[in-house]
Amino acid sequence: MQERSVSAIRPRRSVLYMPGSNARALEKARALDADALILDLEDAVAPDAKETARAQVCQAVKARGFGAREVVIRINGLGTQWSDADLEAALDAGPDAVLVPKVSGAADLEGIDAAIDGIELWAMIETPRAILDIDEIAGSSRNLACLVMGTNDLIKDMRGKPMRGRENLTAALSLCVLAARAHDLSAIDGVFNTIADPEGFHAECERGRAFGFDGKTLVHPSQIAPCNAIFAPSGEEVEFARRIIAAFALPENACRGAIALDGKMVERLHAETARRTVALAEAIAAREPQP
Question: What does pTM read for this prediction?
Answer without folding.
Answer: 0.94
